Amino acid sequence: MRIPDPLGASILGLPLWLVVAIGAAALFGAFQAYYWIGHRLGEALYRSRMGRKIGQQRIARVEGIVRRWGALAVYGCFWIPGLRHTLPWVAGALRVDYRWYLVASALGCLTWVPVTTFGLYSLIWTWVRLVAASPVLAVGLLGVLAAAAAAFLAWRRRRNMTTAS
């Protein structure tokens, strides 16, 4: 089985580079919407359903990150799951300078989207190649990964329970 060339690859008939460009533009638009929603609603956003779901302690931690790091936190949040869609509206509520926010979110979109798209694409095709070469090894590897993920989640849950007590 031949792995396709990433530059000649396509998803749903679209070239991979176009998928990356559309993804970056869509994420950039979402980040701008998050900022302006946070800017418009301000403190009321914390009392919203989303704010209650996230929790006041987590929001306070995100506020501390934004106050300390500013626009650099906006760029960094792309690389931390969970923070990616929380920090932008907190930045808006805290009135982070929009010019810096705009630059940081544009740089984040231009780096995070290609890395994750090409990375996932490579991972998927590596998996397909492994399945074609040795289905038994592929299933075994999947089992090991599932067990590692379960162990990590159990460890994290225990750690959170002890710190909350």
Automatic annotation (TrEMBL):
Please state every residue range assigned to the domain named VTT: 15-120
Kindly report the protein's main subcellular placement as a broad class: membrane
Look up the signal peptide feature and give its range: none
Which keywords belong to this entry? Cell membrane, Membrane, Transmembrane, Transmembrane helix
Localisation per UniProt entry: Cell membrane
Entry's transmembrane regions: 16-37, 100-124, 130-155
Q: How does it sit in the membrane?
A: Multi-pass membrane protein
Q: Does the keyword Cell inner membrane apply?
A: no
What GO cellular component is one of the record's annotations?
A: plasma membrane
The record's listing under InterPro entries reads: DedA_domain, VTT_dom
Q: Which family does it belong to?
A: Belongs to the DedA family.
Return the protein name: VTT domain-containing protein
Protein's organism: Planotetraspora silvatica
